[in-house]
Amino acid sequence: MSIESLAETAQALVAPGKGIIAIDESTATIGKRFAAVGIENTEAHRRRYRELLLTTPRLSDHISGAILFEETLRQSTEDGIPFPKYMASHGLIPGIKVDRGTSPLAGCPGERVTEGLDGLRDRLKAYYGLGARFAKWRAVITIGEDIPSGTCIEVNAHALARYAALCQEQGLVAIVEPEVLMDGDHDIQVCYEVTEAMLRSLFGALHDQGVLLEGTLLKASMVVPGQDCEERADIEEVAESTVMCLKSTVPAILPGIVFLSGGQSDADATARLDAMNRLGNLPWPLSFSYGRAMQQAALAHWAKDPVGNFAKAQAIVLERAKENGLAALGKWKG
Ligand code: 13P
């Protein structure tokens, strides 16, 4: 696989006005989302719900690709078209979450490390064969008393780099996602410092392991105060802090940065992305790879009447895609 085709895919994922929809919830995580709206977590329901999202008419006007969970990569539309094939013929690049979730990090109480490197080369080969052209690996950094430790940051950065090198070897663009969680009562400055340390370590590890940045995308969390912090930050402060943190840590050659929503409201996720793009003078496209902030309104509506509300739920997905696509250009009207 040539670097040119990896770079081409990475650039297409962050094409102007387009972002990624993350629908890669594990079976346990989608179970939580379904439970919140009264949907039973069965394979049939998961398939139908993902079909709703992926077959939204005109989705590719604002969405470049979707990150799938492995189960979805192997499922098909009602008409029997495998999802990756359906996506490719409708202008959506198929992606796949390849990490196996997190486990407690031995020796570091309260911290986690992402698993899934064993056997990853063979899995990536199979995912490529099924049509995936990019992949995602999520590391989780928790802020708390005396954490994150340097060890936690380093081992997660090292695993992200090993994953990314394997992806590129197998022809897949690597999305590296070091998520700094919003849980806690820390202020925005602490979030800034932790995010900065994580990104420095990550780009060091990517460099050490020979990962081609041209074929890599960063999936970043925004720099925000912890959910329980009394001192809130306005949209401009979040936008400015996030952009400053990224500018001081992320090489300009990276094709783009996409944000996760991480539990922000739909309105915050869109307004903050828009504000960052309005700052201008950015070395990379800043776009989105939202899960909840793309889906939650549509899921709630669909759950009320899965048959009768199918089309309306798709219209809600399209509206969220359009708003976030405008925010990726700094042209959202609020
Ligand atoms: P949220 O936007 O819901 O945080 O999900 C994005 C994601 O892919 C987390 O790994």
Automatic annotation (TrEMBL):
Keywords: Glycolysis, Lyase. It catalyses: beta-D-fructose 1,6-bisphosphate = D-glyceraldehyde 3-phosphate + dihydroxyacetone phosphate. Pathway: Carbohydrate degradation; glycolysis; D-glyceraldehyde 3-phosphate and glycerone phosphate from D-glucose: step 4/4. Its EC number is 4.1.2.13. InterPro entries: Aldolase_I_AS, Aldolase_TIM, FBA_I. PROSITE patterns: ALDOLASE_CLASS_I (PS00158). The keyword DNA repair does not apply. Belongs to the class I fructose-bisphosphate aldolase family. This is Fructose-bisphosphate aldolase. It comes from Pseudoxanthomonas winnipegensis.
